[in-house]
């Protein structure tokens, strides 16, 4: 009877060990599947982040390029406006000089006309001279 109980115990222990081994394999498989799923999901997230980073870097490069172009264009416009302002000042100076010359020519013309009239009157008054 004791040997029968011992055999039953041994059989029970063997069955339990087999069940435990099956459960252990199932646990390992489940753990492996879970690990793979978690890693796949993490890899997908990391991959998406990497793609987003690349897109952001590319957009940043384009923005930097466009900003540099805009800065160069702005500098060109500033230079052009400065030159235009200088040209307007020169035109203003030329206009001012021409008005001064016109005024002086008018004064000279009036003076010469007055001298001519005075000489003509003097010649009429003294025809012998």
Tags for this entry?
129 residues, mainly alpha
Structural overview:
The protein is an all-alpha fold. The protein has one helix at residues 2-125. The chain is rod-shaped, with a radius of gyration of 54 Å. The relative contact order is 0.03.
Secondary-structure content class: mainly alpha
- Spatial separation of the terminal alpha carbons: 182 Å
List low-pLDDT spans.
none
| Rg of Cα set | 54 Å
- Strand residues, percent: under 5%
Query: What order do the SSEs take from the amino end to the carboxyl end, as H and E?
Result: H
Family: Belongs to the BLOC1S1 family.
GO biological process, one term: endosomal transport
InterPro entries: BLOC1S1
Protein name: Biogenesis of lysosome-related organelles complex 1 subunit 1
Condensed summary:
This protein has 129 residues and is mainly α.
Which SSEs are present, and which pair or pack?
Layout: H1 2-125
């Amino acid at each position: 009877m004791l040997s029968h109980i011992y055999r039953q115990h041994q059989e029970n222990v063997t069955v339990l060990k087999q069940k435990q081994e099956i459960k252990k394999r199932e646990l390992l498989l489940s753990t492996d599947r879970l690990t793979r799923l978690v890693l796949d999901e993490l890899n997908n997230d990391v991959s998406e982040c990497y793609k987003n980073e690349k897109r952001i870097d590319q957009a940043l490069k384009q923005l930097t390029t466009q900003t540099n172009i805009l800065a160069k264009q702005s500098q060109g416009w500033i230079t052009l406006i400065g030159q235009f302002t200088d040209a307007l000042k020169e035109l203003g100076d030329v206009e001012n000089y021409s008005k001064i010359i016109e005024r002086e020519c008018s004064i000279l013309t009036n003076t010469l006309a007055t001298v001519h009239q005075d000489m003509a009157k003097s010649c009429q008054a003294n025809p012998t001279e």
